Each structure stands twice: as C-alpha cells, then as structure tokens.
TrEMBL record:
InterPro entries: Acrflvin-R (IPR001036)
The entry's keywords: Membrane, Transmembrane, Transmembrane helix
GO molecular function annotations of the record: xenobiotic transmembrane transporter activity
Flavoprotein listed as a keyword: no
Domain of life: Bacteria
Gene Ontology CC annotations of this record: plasma membrane
Species of the source: Helicobacter pylori
Signal peptide range: none
PANTHER family recorded: PROBALE CATION EFFLUX SYSTEM PROTEIN, PTHR32063
The protein, known as: Efflux RND transporter permease subunit
TM regions (residue ranges): 20-38, 45-67, 73-97, 118-138, 150-177
C-alpha cells in the first residue's frame, strides 16, 4: 500500500490566505499610491506619504515580536488597516502644508506652522484608533485569539507611524519643497 501525507484544516487555510494576501497587500499599496498621486498631483509627495508604511510595518512587527505572536491572517489584515491609518496621518500633515503654501507662506513657515497645527489631529487619529482596539487586546472571550494579533499590529504600528508623521515628515517635506515646485 502507498502512504502519503496531506496537510489540511488550519494549515491549508493559512497557506491559501497567505497566497491571497501576497497579492492583496501589494495591490493595496499600489492603489494607495495612485490615490495619493491623483490627490497631490506629485510623485514625490505621494512617495513621501507612502514612507509611513514601512515605519508602520516595523512598529507592527516589533509589537508582534514583543508579545510573542506570529504573523497570521488577522495580523496581515491588521497591517492593511494600519496602512490606511498611517497614510491618513501623512495626508493630514502634507495636505495642510500644501494649503499653507497656496496661501503664499514660505516653505519654512508652512512646515513650522503646519506641524504645530496638525499635531492634535494626528495624535487624535492615532489615539482614537488605538483606544478602539484596547478591548480586543485584553479580551479572553471566544474568538479573541483571532482579534488579538490584529489589535497588536495596529497599536504597535500607530506608535511608529505617528512618530514618523510628527518628527520626520515635516523636515522631509521641507527638503522636497525646496528642490521641486509643490504648488
């Protein structure tokens, strides 16, 4: 008789989901890029905002590692949600810088004033998203093992992407705005 091994159940589902996500995640990032490009009509600004994504991913991965979780389908879904929040914070900041430039302010003035005036909206977005996930993080009810990795990824990524938005995005915008015409 011939014997063979087949992997099924959870493992098979995980493999199928990983294959699907390996297509969905790059397509999501590409779609975000095109939306940013058509919004700001600038490849450098779209790429500057997309720079939030690697920082968000780094924070999510560090958070997963810190609590001993693994990359799973729920964690991957958390990364996709995190991409949206990270990009939103970048859009809030860069959009305001661009608005101030249209009002005739200098690049330096735009960055200083814009960073100061957009501190609260960026922090509020991150805090509200984070607070909404706290119950998922500490839940021990049925299904919490699925929700917890998603919450961990988003919370960890919010910390790093918010820090980037507030600390690195303004000076990077200033460098770009001095080299190319933004408005």
């Amino acid at each position: 008789p011939s014997y063979y091994i087949t992997y099924g159940g959870q493992f098979e589902n995980q493999q199928r989901a990983n294959k699907r996500l390996s297509t969905v995640i790059p397509l999501s990032i590409l779609a975000i890029f095109f939306i940013l490009f058509f919004t700001f009509k600038s490849i450098p600004l779209a790429l500057l905002i997309l720079l939030n994504i690697p920082f968000a991913v780094t924070g999510g991965l560090i958070a997963l590692f810190a609590v001993g979780e693994y990359i799973s389908v729920p964690a991957s879904v958390g990364f996709i949600a995190l991409f949206g929040i990270a990009v939103l914070n970048g859009v809030v900041m860069i959009g305001y810088f661009k608005e101030l430039l249209l009002q005739g302010k200098s690049v330096e003035e735009c960055v200083l004033l814009g960073a100061k005036r957009r501190l609260r909206p960026v922090l509020m977005t991150a805090c509200i998203a984070g607070l909404g996930l706290i119950p998922l993080l500490f839940s021990h009810s049925v299904g919490s093992e699925v929700q917890k990795p998603l919450a961990i990824v988003v919370l960890g990524g919010l910390v790093t992407s918010s820090a980037l938005t507030l600390l690195l995005l303004p000076p990077m915008f200033m460098l770009i705005a001095k080299k190319i015409k933004i408005v």
